[in-house]
Amino acid sequence: MVVGWEWDDTLFSGTAAYYERGRLPYAAGLADALAEELRLDGEGRLLDVGCGPGTIALNLAHLFGEIVGVDPDSEMIAEAGRGAAGRGVGAKTRWVRARAEALPAGLGTFAVATFGQSFHWMDRDLVAATVRDMLRPGGALVHIADLKTEPRTVDGMPHPAVPYAAVDDMVKRYLGPVRRAGRGVLAQGTPGAEDEVFARAGFSGPRRLVVPGGQVLERTFDDVVAWVFSMSFSAPHLFEGRRDDFEADLRLLLREASPSGRFSERAPSTEVFVWRKGPAAA
């Protein structure tokens, strides 16, 4: 858990509806890479912890016989359910509103557990140990995130880059210089060193995979606004009565950065760490 901060149920309040449009996609080859690494055959059970609107779980649904997503936010759970129905996989998916700290919650055992940029919000030692006990022998815990260390320039692309630094400055002008998170703030940001946590929990590994991104994306003003409102540190409710003013100023900033109304962006690669319950596979 983040030192000096307590989770509360407003952390992602109001953000779920903006995820699909605002968030950049994971690399297109993620499912194939995991299928090969974990020898997935369409059977077995997947536990997606901190599933949000089902971003990872739904992209992996064809690789498992059953999907269980867990998230404390009711709007995220509702979006995941709608997404599953739209993809025709509602019959083999289950969405549970609960904090990760409430696991195992009678959910049974699983072949694979995934965390997609959610683990840092949890009581990490408790959750890692609990999830290890929920995995069958030889099961895998998979930690998935955007690769943060690669350059993603827009040189040679038809539109300018999204002015992320200027957007961040505007958020700080409205919400203050310290990162907001629910009803509290994160003066030191979210914790890292996940490898130490998983090792303490008794996992072996990890095996690191990088699934290449790099495809050229075109982003509109609406896409960028959705990205802002999909983030915990700029969730819509944080602006209180000034949300409309903020959005108007944000759109003006974006118009000044790109009069055409379009931005170019390069999709990030996806970094995956696979941890095993028990001795690492050969």
TrEMBL record:
The keyword Transferase applies. Residues 47-139 form the Methyltransferase domain. CDD domains: AdoMet_MTases (cd02440). One of its GO terms (biological process) is methylation. Keywords: Methyltransferase, Transferase. The keyword Transcription does not apply. One of its GO terms (molecular function) is methyltransferase activity. It holds the Pfam family Methyltransf_25. This is SAM-dependent methyltransferase.
